[in-house]
Design a protein that fits this description.
Helix content: 25-40%
Bound molecules: adenosine-5'-triphosphate, magnesium ion
Radius of gyration: 14 Å
Strand order of the largest sheet: 2-3-1-4
Low-confidence stretches: none
CATH topology: Alpha-Beta Plaits
CATH class: Alpha Beta
Shape: globular
CATH architecture: 2-Layer Sandwich
Largest sheet: 4 strands, antiparallel
Mean pLDDT: 97
Length: 138
């Protein structure tokens, strides 16, 4: 019963040199990489990706942060991928994240929180196809 989730290593973690350590944690937790790219979002693309948060007070800050530097985008596969990946990354606010989670170890703050993880199977599919065509998934 394998399924998929979508992640980004966000601009803060890229700038802080944590790409390798985060990918290592992802591999160690048993996720298989289905697709991956190093890229940078325009403000327009970041706004589209996070458009569900349009009405939230932090939307402008989120869009400007997510387009501030390069990111790593990836599709990951594992049984219970969405749920298990959310456990691996920890709470949105790193101050509330459990020890050993990626956000606890690598996030700067609630806004600049190192990684994205899809919150449902449906959103994982939508987010994965935002970045990758079928030909880029293995
Ligand atoms: P993500 O969707 O990036 O995996 P999440 O599901 O844990 O994070 P969401 O509620 O979906 O959290 O918020 C999306 C992103 O918006 C957060 O990861 C964070 O970067 C930013 N964010 C959320 N809440 C705040 C806040 N109170 N202040 C600033 N930024 C915030
Ligand atoms: Mg979310």
């Amino acid at each position: 019963m394998t399924n998929r989730t979508f992640t980004m290593i966000k601009p803060d973690a890229v700038e802080d040199g944590h790409i390798g350590a985060i990918l290592n944690d992802i591999n160690a937790a048993g996720f298989r990489i289905v697709a991956m790219k190093y890229t940078k979002l325009s403000a327009e693309q970041a706004g589209k990706f996070y458009e569900v948060h349009q009405e939230r007070p932090f939307y402008g800050e989120l869009v400007s942060f997510m387009s501030s530097g390069p990111i790593v985008a990836a599709i990951l596969e594992k049984d219970h991928a969405v749920e298990d990946f959310r456990k691996l990354i920890g709470a949105t606010n790193p101050a509330n994240a459990e020890d050993g989670t990626i956000r606890k170890k690598f996030a700067r703050s609630i806004g600049e929180n190192a990684v994205h993880g899809s919150d449902s199977n449906e959103n994982a599919a939508i987010e994965g196809s935002f970045f990758f065509s079928a030909l880029e998934q293995f």
